[in-house]
Amino acid sequence: MLRTTPSIPIPRTVPLLPLQDRVLLPGVVTRLQISRRDSIPLFEKILRTYDSKELNKCIIGVFPIHQTSEKKIPSVVAATGAETATKEGSERSKTDTNTNGQHGGFTDDMAIGSNAGQVVPFMRPKSNSASGGNSQSNSSTHRNSSSVLNPADVHTTGVAARVIRLERAVGGFSVILEGLARLRLNKILVQSPYFEADVTPLLDKAVDKNDQELQDQITILRSISKEFISLLQDLKLPAPVLTQLQKFLENAGVIPGQVVDLLISTIESTRDEKIMILDAVDLKQRIPKAVELLTRQIHVLKISQKVHDNVEGKLNKKQREFYLRQQMAAIKEELGEKDGAEEDELTIIENRLNAAHLPSEVQKAADRELKRLKKMQPASSEYSVIRNYLDWLGDLPWNKATEDLLDVERARKQLNDDHYGLDKVKRRILEYLAVTKLQQMKGDVKGPILCLVGAPGVGKTSLGRSIATAMGRKFHRISLGGVWDESEIRGHRRTYVGALPGLIIHGLKKCEVNNPVFLLDEIDKVGARGHHGDPSAAFLEVLDPEQNSTFTDHYLNVPFDLSKVLFIATANSIDTIPAPLLDRMELITIPGYTYAEKLAIATNHLLPKQVRLHGLSEGDIKVTQEALLKVATGYTRESGVRQLEREVGAVVRAKAVEFAEAQERLSKSEGTPTTASTVVEYQPLVTAADVEEILGQEKYTNEVTERTPTPGVVTGMAYNGVGGGILFIEASQMPGKGSLQLTGSLGDVIKESAHIALSWVKSHGYEINLSNSPGQNIMERVDVHIHMPSGGTPKDGPSAGIAMVCALVSMFSNQTFPATTAMTGEFTLRGLVMPVGGIKEKVIAAHRAGVRKIIMPLRNQKDVTADVPANVREEIEFVYASTIWEVLKEAFDGRIVVRAGIPAAALDSRL
Ligand SMILES: Nc1ncnc2c1ncn2[C@@H]1O[C@H](COP(=O)(O)OP(=O)(O)OP(=O)(O)O)[C@@H](O)[C@H]1O
Question: Which compartment or compartments is the protein found in (predicted)?
Answer without folding.
Answer: Cytoplasm
